[in-house]
Design brief:
The protein has about 120 residues and is mostly helical. Helices cover about 85% and strands about 0% of the residues. It has helices at about 1-25, 35-55, 60-75, 80-90, 95-124. α2 (about 35-55) packs parallel to α5 (about 95-124). The relative contact order is 0.20.
Length: about 120
């Protein structure tokens, strides 16, 4: 039964990632991958908040499978982040490549901490 929760969450997360990426990237006239950056940071924030909610007993393990593993797992994308960073470096946009790595990691970790802090404030 658990795998059905993961599949259901991923069935929403994957198209949401694609649609969000396209919508965000369309609004920016730059080679920087803002769409992937956005979905990764939002996914980190959601996962941090969800993990905190589970930790403080406000969310179930089933909800963690549905939204954490399924939705956030399909919404966020380390492989696309890596590929886009490599493409930036290969095409001579090394500053954008470095900025993508540094900003992506810092913003992602920061979003997880904010999500956890939000969960603690709400449910601890």
């Amino acid at each position: 039964m658990n795998w059905l929760l993961v599949i259901a969450g991923a069935a929403v997360g994957a198209p949401l990632r694609y649609l969000t990426d396209r919508a965000v990237q369309k609004r920016h006239d730059t080679v920087f991958p803002w769409g992937t950056f956005t979905v990764n940071v939002v996914g980190c924030l959601l996962l941090g908040a969800l993990t905190g909610a589970v930790t403080y007993g406000s969310a179930s393990h089933s909800l963690q499978l549905l939204l954490g593993t399924g939705l956030c797992g399909a919404l966020t994308t380390y492989s696309t982040f890596s590929y886009e960073t490599l493409r930036l470096a290969e095409t001579g946009a090394r500053l954008f490549a470095a900025a993508n790595v540094i900003a992506g990691v810092i913003a992602g970790l920061g979003a997880v901490f904010v999500g956890l802090a939000l969960a603690e404030a709400l449910w601890a």
